[in-house]
Amino acid sequence: ITDAELAALDDDGDGDEGAPVSLPVLAVVGRPNVGKSTLVNRILGRREAVVQDVPGVTRDRVAYDANWNGRRFTLVDTGGWEPDAQGRAAAIANQARYAMSVADAVLLVVDARVGITDTDAAVARVLQRGGKPVVVAANKVDDTKGEADVAELWRLGLGEPWPVSALHGRGSGDLLDKVLEVLPEAPAEGRFGTGGPRRVALVGRPNVGKSSLLNALTKEDRAVVDSVAGTTVDPVDSLVELGDEVWRFVDTAGLRKKVTFSSGAEYYASLRTAAAIEAAEVAVVLLDASEPLSEQDQRVITGVVEAGRALVIAFNKWDLMDEDRRELLDREIDRDLQRVRWAPRINVSARTRRAVDKLAPMLHTALEGWEQRIPTGRLNSWMSELVAAHPHPVRGGKQTRILFATQAGSKPPRFVLFTTGPVDVAYQRYIERRLREDFGFVGTPIQISVRIKE
Ligand code: GDP
Ligand code: GDP
């Protein structure tokens, strides 16, 4: 293996390559009805609007994986903020502030046919001060006639307005080229991990007790800290003090004020869940211990594993437990949770507050595993022992040899095996199991990939 190959595995040295958190973030902001969702769908290459207007439902920010000309980035649709007590302009300015705090670049959408409204001007002022690159999309320019309206938007003070028709696609390629020009290759340092509270997603299917647990947690230590000096708090996240530490529970707005809506409710819920997991470092998947484990529970767990986040499994409603149910549950765990047996489990009751104070230590355990690194030298001496004791099976007269192994990244831990041939899935699982036995990696998925050297 050459130094160049090694370097390519970990090109910026932070060990996060491949992890979704390392993508730069583009936030789309603008007042309601300017065409943000239409534009987001256009960028994502979807035909119909994914996010429809349902009266009374605040479209919250949702994160998507986007790709333009081979460059991947995270697209955050900040959605429409309902005018609150402070009025619409304030709500929109908050949206812009939020975008500034999470994004590496901002796409401001304006309705060119309407021109600059007071709200647009207020948002522009926030963006001017934010210090992040901004691209102005002059939307609803459906034909050449519309171009006449565009020049006026220079007055926003954010540089050249880019004419686009989100509806018909006109100009969207040029707009995206411009966006990618200003979007940094890698996200800003410090958004995850270093500095600021650790980010937790509290997820699970409806009615498992997420809001109840959040309430119990916030009561437990009295303090729901709504703003902490020097921290920008997204209005939909909650800062919660557990023990003597502040944690940031992401995307809890929907838990706090319960909206009831009928159409597409499940779809909304799953988008929210995915966005929360994406924004978090560690997820608490809440299950209802009094009911059988369901498909839906499994899907939430899969979401966490596939996103590469640390995982804690919490069985709620433990106050309803009796011996019979307990026995059944043990069997369900054996049968359905084998694939995540590395995840720490905790039995809680939001109602009685049983064990809720045990949650924070569990989160730490899972985060430690998630961030753990094994030095290359140690890994390879370990690997040669493993291989000597348990060589790869011979397939078709050939035996794959493992030449070298390295941990290319953490958060979650990623290993690369350099080999002389393909590695059986069963053998990869064996390696994963042994890694966990010997090094821990509690509470974190592990990714293993194979590079065959000719
Ligand atoms: P949002 O509230 O900013 O997300 O706006 P939407 O994407 O929901 O769009 C609001 C309305 O404007 C919808 O009726 C869209 O069909 C319409 N719209 C969006 N983009 C365009 C466009 O480029 N041209 C025209 N003519 N209408 C558009
Ligand atoms: P969410 O949809 O996941 O946010 O669930 P909720 O917090 O709204 O709880 C759903 C239902 O379960 C409510 O009726 C709660 O009172 C009940 N519940 C939540 N936690 C517990 C618990 O620990 N024990 C019992 N017995 N009921 C609970």
UniProtKB/TrEMBL annotation:
Extract the GO molecular function terms from the UniProt entry: GTP binding; ribosome binding
> Which amino acid positions bind GTP 1, per UniProt?
30-37, 77-81, 139-142
Tell me the InterPro entries matching this sequence: G_ENGA, GTP-bd, GTPase_Der, KH_dom-like, KH_dom-like_a/b, P-loop_NTPase, Small_GTP-bd
Its keywords, alphabetically, are: GTP-binding, Nucleotide-binding, Repeat, Ribosome biogenesis
Query: Pfam families per the record?
Result: KH_dom-like, MMR_HSR1
PROSITE patterns reported for this sequence: G_ENGA (PS51712)
GO BP annotations, alphabetical order: ribosome biogenesis
Residues involved in GTP 2 binding: 204-211, 251-255, 316-319
Recorded superkingdom: Bacteria
Domain EngA-type G: residue ranges = 24-187, 198-371
How it assembles, according to the record, is: Associates with the 50S ribosomal subunit.
Q: Which family does it belong to?
A: Belongs to the TRAFAC class TrmE-Era-EngA-EngB-Septin-like GTPase superfamily. EngA (Der) GTPase family.
Function of the protein: GTPase that plays an essential role in the late steps of ribosome biogenesis.
Spell out the NCBIfam families in the cross-references: GTPase_EngA (TIGR03594), PRK03003.1 (NF002828), small_GTP (TIGR00231)
- What protein am I looking at? GTPase Der
According to its UniProt entry, this protein's organism is Cryptosporangium phraense
